[in-house]
Design a protein that fits this description.
Mean pLDDT: 93
Largest sheet: 5 strands, antiparallel
Helix content: 10-25%
CATH topology of the largest domain: Uridine Diphospho-n-acetylenolpyruvylglucosamine Reductase, domain 3
Oligomer: single chain
Low-confidence stretches: none
Radius of gyration: 19 Å
CATH architecture of the largest domain: 2-Layer Sandwich
Distance between the termini: 28 Å
Structural class: alpha+beta
Shape: globular
Order of helices and strands: EHEEEEEHEHEEEEEEEEHEEEHEEEHE
Strand content: 25-35%
Length: 290
């Protein structure tokens, strides 16, 4: 089992490039090693980091970290049923499936995330979410044992799911679509993201959840933030993006405190001006004081 305590910081494993240290940093290379870690540390704080596109990491994590970088990547297709390991980047998966005429997940193009995190949070865009394509998931439970959970047992909500444990593999039921059609949709969505999102600057994507009422109607968090005049607002090295108000970007060595303080400022301003309390979509990991 590889213990990566020689790493200086965890910033390299977060798309906003912020993060510090932890008691232990493990990078297991096999399922057995991963199961052993979970079994040993389940009663303590254990944080799993995959693509790091939705985690704001503190200077010192209270507990241990498990990275998925050394775990084997698995991709198996039987018709349109696709089984893929949780550490597979979504961009790589889409490109692998395209020439096989397997599509359906193009709405996730351009998101720098791994499959496990996308499924755990039921990521989505353009009125679709990954949960609608799930057939089953293979997880490691808190006892370090592998078990399969079928879609019927999973509750998917807006940017949330009740999947317990560590997601090891996901089985998806996708669609048979022509490769040219898949590529066109992929490029269109990618181009839109490149035009409207600040993808050239470190961030965690959309920071706050959109509002969804009982009828399923959505109100854009970004529009609320923009309407409150917060574009360009800066604390330290963290700034509200001028191209998309729901992005907090790291423009100059931003710290965890810069981002959290800016997020609180956004929440308080929007609440005072509109009466709406924005809920973070990003998972803010609480740190330990030193």
């Amino acid at each position: 089992m590889e213990k990566e305590n020689n790493l200086q910081t965890l910033a390299q494993y977060s798309t906003i490039q912020i993060g510090g240290t932890a008691d232990n940093i493990f990078a297991p290379a096999t399922r057995d090693e991963l199961c052993s870690i979970i079994k040993e540390y389940t009663s303590r704080n254990l944080l799993f980091i995959g693509g790091g596109s939705n985690l704001l990491l503190p200077p010192v994590i209270d507990g241990s970290v498990v990275l998925d970088v050394n775990l084997p990547r698995v991709l198996d297709c039987v018709g349109t049923q696709v089984t893929v390991s949780s550490n597979y980047p979504i961009g790589s998966l889409l490109r692998q499936l395209m020439p096989q005429n397997i599509g359906g997940l193009e709405f996730l193009a351009g998101i720098p995330a791994h499959i496990g995190g996308l499924v755990k949070m039921n990521a989505g865009a353009w009125g679709e979410s990954i949960g609608q394509f799930i057939s089953s998931v293979l997880v490691i439970n808190n006892e370090g044992e592998i078990e399969e959970i079928t879609a019927e047992s999973i509750e998917f909500g807006y940017r949330t799911s009740n999947i317990p444990g560590y997601i090891l593999e996901v089985t998806l039921e996708l669609k048979e679509i022509g490769a040219n059609e898949i590529e066109q949709r992929f490029r269109k969505i990618l181009a839109h993201r490149n035009e409207s999102h600040p993808l050239d600057t470190p961030s965690l994507g959309c920071f706050f959840k959109n509002l969804v009422d009982d009828e399923g109607n959505k109100t854009s968090a970004g529009k609320l933030i923009d309407d409150c005049g917060l574009k360009g607002t800066r604390i330290g090295g963290a700034t509200v993006s001028n191209s998309h108000a729901n992005f907090i970007i790291n423009i100059q060595n931003a710290t965890y405190e810069d981002v959290t303080e800016l997020s609180y400022l956004i929440q308080n301003t929007v609440l005072n001006q509109t009466g709406v309390l924005l809920e973070p979509e990003v998972i803010i990991i609480q740190g330990r004081e030193v």
